[in-house]
Amino acid sequence: MSYNSPLDRGSLPPIDYRVSTGAVDPGLRLYMLRVYNVMAAGLGLTGLVAYVAVATGFYQQIAGTPLIWLVMLAYDQG
């Protein structure tokens, strides 16, 4: 007994992989640009804080103490 799926028989129409050229909502585009800009700024700020913490020796001073957990798990509630 063999199983013949619709894909084996070729009964499905071919898939069109072309990209739609529909219009993009300008409001959505502006909103997404703002979101990505805020995300990029946050990532840059995180990198800057990490660099300063290592360059000044702050990380080395707290690495062996329980204070490291406070720094790693701290977040803004606002």
What do you see in this structure?
The chain is mostly helical. The chain has a domain at 25-78. The chain has 4 helices and no strands. The chain has helices spanning 6-9, 26-55, 58-62, 67-73. The mean pLDDT is 82.
What structural class do you assign from the helix and strand content? mainly alpha
The share of residues in extended strands comes to under 5%
Low-pLDDT ranges:
none
- Using the alpha-carbon principal axes, give the shape: elongated
Termini Cα gap: 64 Å
Output mean pLDDT. 82
> Main beta sheet, described?
none
How many β-strand stretches? Answer: 0
Radius of gyration: 26 Å
What string, H for helix and E for strand, traces the elements in order? HHHH
Number of helices: 4
Name the helicity range: 55-70%
What is this structure's SSE topology?
Blueprint: H1 6-9, H2 26-55, H3 58-62, H4 67-73
In short:
The protein has 78 residues and is mainly α. It has helices at 6-9, 26-55, 58-62, 67-73.
Task: Please supply descriptive tags for the structure shown above.
78 residues, mainly alpha
